[in-house]
Amino acid sequence: MLQQPQQWNNILLQLRTNKITWLFIIAAILLFTGIGSTPMYILDEARNAQAAREMMERNDWIVPTFNGELRAHKPPLHYYFMQIAYRVFGMNAFSTRFFSAVFGWLTIWITWFFTRRFVSYGTAIWAVAVLLVSTHFLFEFRMSVPDPYLIFFITAGIFCFYAYTQERTLKWLICSAVAAALATLAKGPVALALPALVLVWWVLSLKKYELLFSWHLLLYAAVIVLVALPWYVIVHQATHGEFTRVFFFEHNFNRFGEPMEGHGGLFIMVPLFVLLGLLPVSVFTGELVKKVRLYHRNNFIRLCMYVVAVFIVFFSVSGTKLPNYPMPCYPFMAVLLGYFINKVITGQIPVKQYPLWLLLLLNVLLFTAAWVGLGLETATQPFRGWALLFAIPVITTAGSWWFFKKEGLKKAMHVIIAGYSVFNFLFLAIGYPAIYQHNPVTKTLHLLPKNSTVYAYKIYNPAYNFYLNNSIKVLESPAQVNEVITTQPQAVIISRENHLLELEAVPVKLLAKERDLFETATTVLLSGK
Questions:
Q1: How many other β-carbons are positioned within 10 Å of the β-carbon of residue 179?
Q2: Nearest residue to 280 (alpha-carbon basis) of 432, 398, 141
Q3: Global pTM exceeds 0.85
């Protein structure tokens, strides 16, 4: 009877002394808390969630569809995981994001595991901390999109390949190949090509040419083909080549060659995406670059540097640029920053204080932008007070600078981890969901009949499909709209305000008009007069 209290005391003692355990607990809280509270509204989230549902309802594991039509934007891996969650937790927003959060936690864990194994405990701790305080990293892993799966499997594939080169055991090679294949099923050929380029560059830089001419690479390629290729072949046959044509040419080659959907920009945008995405710790990147020669002394760190370089350069020259595109390099950039911070804290290299001043300036700008942005957006003006959350990073940075002056970088980093953990929890789990409850889909759902056909004129938010669990018939001309309201006067038609002029000659009445949150468009609902 006395042993049980002693066991609990030992567990509590271990929790008090084991920093990484606490970091993993905090990671779980930040990734999972409130993921079902944010309504489905962002376009990609809604399309992915509904596509997974349609596949599940048809019991189809091959052809992804949205609104009953082929969806050739992405391979199916994230749809599979969403279907598992649907069957376990039911059809809701939590289910759509559950495995994204799982893979976020696993990405943090795998970064810790391999960094500790091949570099040092200190570097691993700080690498985890970099990811843990990155709002963008946490935000992406709380969404129903394919990127969480892609990031994890690319990270796992590269780290496992490194383990194979160090220990020469086939288990690591096979794990790397399986991870590479699953990354290909998450995003497509880019998930295979970029890591391959990184690994070849890294092997050549070390002059380990035997790795490139080993029969083991044939096994590596065979595993990838066996895991990834069958689905691509079957979906090609099932869609008579349509998926292959649209996915590979429109959503891969065309996206690389030219901007799509207005997402273009200058070369410098992608490095800025990475630096802003890994705030607050990325402010030390300038100091890190000054010490770049240190990174060639450790092969694992050199590999991480090559990953960051390849992903940033590739997406910088790509025609289409989005903040999530270079995100697979985040865990590797976190290792580089963790390595640098550990060197500073252990007294091996000095660091200046200007990064904290830069961080303070950026946080003041973000606070100002949040205050102004919520004030300008009509739907969010009553919730402008949520902008005060952005005062937390400002206070945190000021406190970290004070501790940096008094006790050094280690104590300053502790303040940053604590302050940003509080901010990320309040912002991601409470503030962001509260604001997004007031999106036009949520506000107008009660006006839509659930048991009859819903129509849309030209364009609409795909979240309507998810909440109605129904196909929406898209009308392309005023004549079609007129025909519908003539035969079905009570029919509801979703559209955008900028299309109302086209319907002036059609006898419709306006049921609702709601501005899309942080967008220029305005959603309208129409019916017959």
A1: 25
A2: 398
A3: yes
> How high does pLDDT run on average in the chain?
91
| Residue 262, SS3 per DSSP | coil
Distances (CA, A) of 457 to 267, 276, 396, 491: 37, 38, 48, 12
Helix (H) or strand (E) holding 198: helix 190-206
- 3-class secondary-structure state, position 81: helix
Residue (of 283, 263, 277, 356) closest to 312 by Cα position: 277
353-373 residue pLDDT tens = 999 999 999 999 999 999 998
CA–CA distance, 157 with 179 (Å, rounded to integer): 5
Of 103, 142, 128, the C-alpha closest to 22 is 128
Inform me whether the pLDDT recorded for 300 exceeds 60. Answer: yes
CATH class of 441-528: alpha beta
Q: Where are the domains of the chain?
A: 3-345, 354-420, 441-528
Separation of alpha carbons 423 and 426, rounded Å? 5
Which of 22-26, 142-146, 383-387 has the lowest average pLDDT?
383-387
Q: What angle is formed at CA 398 by the lines to CA 396 and CA 404, rounded to 5 degrees?
A: 100
Query: Tokens 């390099």 label which residue?
Result: 329
- For the ranges 118-122, 274-278, 295-299, 423-427, which has the lowest average pLDDT? 295-299
Q: Are 255 and 308 in contact (CB under 8 A)?
A: no
* Contact assessment for residue 39 and residue 443, using Cβ atoms and an 8 Å cutoff: no
